[in-house]
Amino acid sequence: MTSTTTLAAPARKSRAGAAGRLRGGNALLGVAGFATFLALLELVPRVGLVSPEYLPPVSRIGVALADLAGDPAFWTALGDTVRGWALGLAIAVALGVVVGFVIGTVPVLREFSASTIEFLRPIPSVALIPLAVLVFGTDLRSVLLLVVYAAFWQVLVQVLYGVQDVDPVAQDTARTFGLNRWGRMRYVTWPTALPYVLTGVRLAAAVALILAVTAELVIGAPGLGNEIGTAQSGGAVARMYALVIVTGLLGVAVNVLARRLERWLLSWHPSLRREVAA
Amino acid sequence: MTVMTQTQTQSRTGTEVLLDVRGVRKVYEGHGRSVEAVRDLTFAVGKGELVCVVGPSGAGKTTLLKCIAGLLAPTSGEVVLEGAAVHGPPPGMAVVFQEYGRSLFPWMTVRRNVELPLKEKKLPKARREELIHRALDAVGLADVQSAYPWQLSGGMQQRVAIARAIAYEPHILLMDEPFAAVDAQTRADLEDLVRSLWHRLGVTTLFVTHDIDEAVYLGQRVLVLSSSPTVVLDDVTIDLPDERDQLTTRSSSRFAELRGHVFEQVQRAKKQSAPVATA
Amino acid sequence: MSVLRRITRSTVAALAVPAVLLALWWVLTADSESYYLPPLSQILSTFDDVWLSDRLAADVLPSLLRLLGGFLVAVLLGVGLGVLIGSLRRLRAFCEPVLEFLRAIPPPVLVPVLMLFAGIGDTMKVLVIVSGCLWPILLNTVEGVRAVDEVLVETCRCYGVRGRARLWHLVIRSASPQIVTGMRQGLSVGIILMVISEMFAASNGLGFTIIQFQRTFAVTEMWTGILLLGVLGFLLALLMRLFERRVLNWYFGLRQAQRGGSR
């Protein structure tokens, strides 16, 4: 197993300080960038570069967005998607953490499970779609099967890295102070692994959203994905785009929340302190 | 032998000026306040000289070196190399950085690290081979050509950086505290390597360090810098015999005198620097 | 002697659990009357009939070609744009919020969107794959280019390394760990998109065939499809890993050297 999932992390740290200093001017540029993006989306169909039947001007999508806000069916769909995502993620995180700690702290288990994990992990969870449809139909359980399968591996693999990263010196120190297995787990292994667990949660949260929407779109389970499919086949193009934007906003919210959570839970952790000080 | 080398030294110090630093001043702007790192530096380095620059830590030594290397534009004043003002890195210059671990390309073998600048110079293959071979030989690394830098010790990595610099055939070699991060024994070896390379190639060398012993041991002249905002406090001629040796040179009374003199200057520089903050 | 023993041990460790799992599957389903869970023996014996005849060329190959095409286009676009955006601070600030938003859109919802533009043919599927693979590659490349070591940048300036040589030997090589990370993430998104774009709307391909089996209640055939997808996912990940080992050999060595030094 290689440690490449976290590859980018060390290089990024050193630049965090410089990025902070430039933030003021950059925010303005970012707003300008977004405005340009919206203006392009308005102009391209209006000028006729793309047929407005395929891409309505962004103002019309805006109107459709406002319509969505007054549509109870939309809110139900949004609730369904969030529920599938949250439940699936919670199950995957719980499973991933428990299984990861058990396997990670017992060397024999680790040795014997590595090949199986390496084999099962890359299996695309969408392969399970037909099975899910057959067994669960368009039920929430179909969504959960896909979400949990995809998100579980993200958490598991990170937890395994984290447990492996425990400093042997710290382990020995804890042992000389007479900590038992449970105490060592609580005071040595868990704090070391926590940043990895949270990285796993962040990655899993994004993947879970993708799979939740996929399940709704392809299987037809209730939710935003399903609404998008219906809007498209019904020719409600502006509504479809509005729904796509909502899924994007949901994605942004998930990313921001996951990063907040990480920051909040790790405010004491040296890896984050260093990042702030740099 | 001794007579020979002494006449050589004299002719060197007396020759034409290769590098001329005239009234260089550098002010860093930012956040609505400015920091004057270098106030006024003026000195000249003759062709073939080995000059050391020493100063307390935070003396703007790196700023000075970057201005000379053309990596930073001075706020005022100018750097003239071989009669031409420096704007951007000049072609006849090679630099050895302090952070050897970060200035070598970790994805290239030792050999390719030395070769890359030569390729960019559009030298023909045969000539490149010759230069690489000679440079790696000179620093004693002929047998690790196909190793990657991270497989080598810190001292060996810095030798690779030196090999890359001399293979480039520079007219002037800048070294920015190159041995600050290696252990004492390796450091002594590398110092002797610099002396012997300078003797053999006759390349003009500007060696920046914070180590007074190192500066006196290596240089023909030692420029003592003040704390920031930096000026030149003193220009000490090192009249030690040209043939230097870690043991005899460092234990000679003249070495102790010179070292003491430079040490005093640096101490004075530190004391003066108490009110550093500038508006 | 001990080397031999170690090799034996690691082989046993690698094969034991999969062997036990397969054996369990085989035994537990041997007399299975369940409609959903046909005996493994039956699935395996059906496998050749289903896939190793015309379908390999008619369905598996088109799927893989679309994936390959989309992935390669995404790599070229992602690395190209990533280097550009990563090198220009102002451009990066200008694009960042838009990119953050576009990346956050779950790529499968682009299937119905792109169907509007490109119908249900190969173009649509390749476009879907490109638009899903692009973001991880692009954003990781930007991060990698931003993190290029300043000392190396100055080294290049001093030694006159510019233009194409600088781009390749400095920028792309030093961003390569992040680029490869992005490629790996992109590939796994790409496989998902390959399958669902075919499930959603297609007349051939792996996803199409599997969903056909499910709709016609050909459960054993459907299971062979699931197995095939699993094996393909595994093989593609393996290929990616080999590529990574080759391209990032220096990086793993460097990291190991740094870790050895710090402990």
TrEMBL record, chain C:
Q: Which InterPro entries match?
A: MetI-like, MetI-like_sf
* Disulfide bond is among the record's keywords: no
Q: Which domain of life is it from?
A: Bacteria
User: Which GO terms fall under biological process for this protein?
Assistant: cellular response to sulfur starvation; transmembrane transport
**Subcellular compartments:** Cell membrane
What are the ABC transmembrane type-1 domain coordinates in residue numbering?
60-244
SUPFAM superfamilies in UniProt = MetI-like
**Protein's name in the database:** Nitrate ABC transporter permease
